[in-house]
From TrEMBL:
<dbReference type="GO" id="GO:0009416">
    <property type="term" value="P:response to light stimulus"/>
</dbReference>
<feature type="binding site">
    <location>
        <position position="216"/>
    </location>
    <ligand>
        <name>FAD</name>
    </ligand>
</feature>
<dbReference type="Pfam" id="PF03441">
    <property type="entry name" value="FAD_binding_7"/>
</dbReference>
<dbReference type="GO" id="GO:0006950">
    <property type="term" value="P:response to stress"/>
</dbReference>
<keyword id="KW-0157">Chromophore</keyword>
<dbReference type="InterPro" id="IPR018394">
    <property type="entry name" value="DNA_photolyase_1_CS_C"/>
</dbReference>
<dbReference type="Pfam" id="PF00875">
    <property type="entry name" value="DNA_photolyase"/>
</dbReference>
<dbReference type="GO" id="GO:0006139">
    <property type="term" value="P:nucleobase-containing compound metabolic process"/>
</dbReference>
<dbReference type="InterPro" id="IPR006050">
    <property type="entry name" value="DNA_photolyase_N"/>
</dbReference>
<dbReference type="InterPro" id="IPR005101">
    <property type="entry name" value="Cryptochr/Photolyase_FAD-bd"/>
</dbReference>
<keyword id="KW-0456">Lyase</keyword>
<dbReference type="InterPro" id="IPR036155">
    <property type="entry name" value="Crypto/Photolyase_N_sf"/>
</dbReference>
<dbReference type="InterPro" id="IPR036134">
    <property type="entry name" value="Crypto/Photolyase_FAD-like_sf"/>
</dbReference>
<feature type="binding site">
    <location>
        <begin position="362"/>
        <end position="364"/>
    </location>
    <ligand>
        <name>FAD</name>
    </ligand>
</feature>
<dbReference type="GO" id="GO:0003904">
    <property type="term" value="F:deoxyribodipyrimidine photo-lyase activity"/>
</dbReference>
<dbReference type="InterPro" id="IPR002081">
    <property type="entry name" value="Cryptochrome/DNA_photolyase_1"/>
</dbReference>
<feature type="domain" description="Photolyase/cryptochrome alpha/beta">
    <location>
        <begin position="1"/>
        <end position="127"/>
    </location>
</feature>
Length: 456
């Protein structure tokens, strides 16, 4: 028989239980790996996201011995049509966990059932499937630290060995899908960015483990140093599975704070997926009720300054420009820029979350939207609302040499050291066209706190 393997957030060959299941079921008939470009999602994505996906798909095609078939259209139409075209008896997938993915998959599975084709889900993009970790009374966790302990106790499987000598089936690709992917991959190759593909991910990970893992606890808050793993863009598309990473990190956690903190960050990713599993509506509305009465401003002119990195606050602008240029931003700077939008510009967090998702190559709706809610004070473990990030002191503290700001804001490159964080203090601070601050942080902080008080 022939089995279809519909790839989505699992663009890899190693440690891939759904691939293994497809190979086992298909036998001689072979496995047909397919990726469906959904034009709605493709067209809505910013250049950085499209190019990263294109480059990753090109690398995945090579990893799958050029057997990967690209289709263009709504998967609800495309997958059943392709399955019938090649006479497949089953469609294998890694289970989706987002509300959008679950709804779409249910629609595809229904269509397949009508045609007598089986739908098989094996594995998830997480070490522990969302929904599996419960407290003593069988309830889900709302707070991270106890979740992390229970998640750790729950444990996960060892990485799955890759099947060898796979027989691939074949089908014609959609030429327009091929053209779009090639165009995006070519554009990506012309830029000096994170290399795409499974082997590149493994290389990056091995270098991180060798050079930075054990000191991760010290360097992880510094955007001027490239010392975090940068696994998030790979994890987003499933180029690497968290199980594979935890296999290397878990044995070190009791001896090394760096390994402990890295495992903990991976646990945040799992926690947010778990929260979304239990509270799907929390993706686009406040998880908690505490700030339901909060007065927000409509996003108007100033939001464009935030989006384009022209607020006049150097660390905020550096981050927002990195986002537009690279599709990635350091975690500390995500927090600073999110705080600026929600507490200095008083804009409700979903507006910012949407902008991040349009541009981040690691854009993950659970981690992103709950990261936003954490900063906004509406989510799990919410930082108290009254803790408002000061973008100037944050910049000086976490980018002490000003190197991060100078890298992304050319108009400030003439200012040495930490002076890049305060152009208003230098005679020639605005000599190269850098904008003056669009607001007074002290005033907006007071305003944010007044609005907070008014909700109580
Ligand atoms: C406002 C905001 C938006 C965010 N949006 C996203 C997003 O869309 N996608 C995304 O993957 N992460 C998001 N994060 C979390 C975090 O910023 C990134 O995961 C991290 O910067 C990725 O870089 P890295 O791979 O070098 O991380 P490392 O520091 O090397 O951490 C290793 C891995 O742990 C996970 N991780 C680390 N920190 C977090 C966190 N706070 N929450 C959840 N998982 C975490 C990631 O999978 C990451 O790849 C967001 C955080 C905030 C505050």
């Amino acid at each position: 028989m022939t089995a279809l393997l519909w790839l989505r957030r699992d663009l890899r060959r190693a440690d891939h239980p759904a691939l293994r299941a497809a190979v086992d079921e298909a036998g001689e008939g072979g496995v047909l790996p397919v990726f469906v470009l959904d034009p709605g999602l493709w067209d809505a994505a910013g250049d950085a996201r499209r190019e990263w996906l294109g480059a990753t798909l090109a690398a995945t095609a090579a990893r799958f011995d050029d057997a990967l078939v690209l289709r263009l259209g709504d998967p609800v139409e495309q997958i059943p049509a392709l399955a019938q075209e090649v006479g497949a008896d089953a469609v294998h997938v890694t289970a989706e966990t987002t509300p959008f993915g679950r709804r779409r998959d249910a629609a595809v599975a229904r269509r397949l059932a009508e045609a007598g084709i089986a739908w098989r889900e094996t594995g998830t993009p997480y070490a522990v499937p969302p929904g599996s970790v419960r407290n003593g009374s069988g309830k889900p966790y709302r707070v991270f630290t106890p979740f992390r302990s229970a998640w750790w106790r729950h444990g996960w499987e060892e990485p799955h060995p890759s099947p060898r000598g796979v027989t691939w089936a074949s089908a014609d690709p959609h030429q327009e899908a091929v053209r779009r992917v090639e165009e995006a991959a070519t554009a990506y190759a012309g830029r000096d960015r994170l290399p795409a593909g499974e082997e590149a991910a493994r290389r990056r990970w091995r270098a991180f483990v060798a050079d930075h893992l054990l000191d991760y606890d010290e360097g992880r808050d510094r955007p001027d140093l490239d010392v975090t793993s940068r696994m998030s863009p790979y994890l987003k598309l499933g180029v690497v599975h968290p199980r594979t990473l935890l296999h290397d990190v878990a044995p070190l956690v009791h001896e090394h704070d760096g390994a402990r903190d890295l495992a903990s960050e991976l646990a945040w990713r799992e926690f947010y997926a778990d929260v979304v599993h239990h509270h799907p509506r929390s993706l686009w509305s406040d998880l908690t009720d505490g700030l339901r009465a909060m007065r927000y401003d409509e996003p108007v002119e100033d939001i464009e300054a935030w989006r384009q990195g022209r607020t006049g606050f150097p660390i905020v602008d550096a981050g927002m420009r990195q986002l537009l240029a690279e599709g990635w931003m350091h975690n500390r700077v995500r927090m600073i820029t999110a705080s600026f939008l929600t507490k200095d510009l008083h804009v409700w967090w979903p507006t910012g979350a949407r902008h991040f998702l349009d541009h981040l190559i690691d854009g993950d709706v659970a981690s992103n939207n709950h990261g936003w809610q954490w900063v906004a004070g509406t989510g799990t473990d919410a930082a108290p609302y009254f803790r408002v990030f000061n973008p100037i002191t944050q910049g000086r503290r976490f980018d002490p040499s000003g190197a991060y700001v100078r890298r992304w804001v050319p108009e400030l490159r003439h200012l040495d050291g930490p002076a890049a964080h305060a152009p208003w203090e230098a005679d020639d601070g605005y000599a190269h066209g850098y904008p003056e601050p669009i607001l007074d942080h002290a005033v907006e902080r007071r305003e944010a706190l007044a609005r907070y008080e008014a909700t109580r």
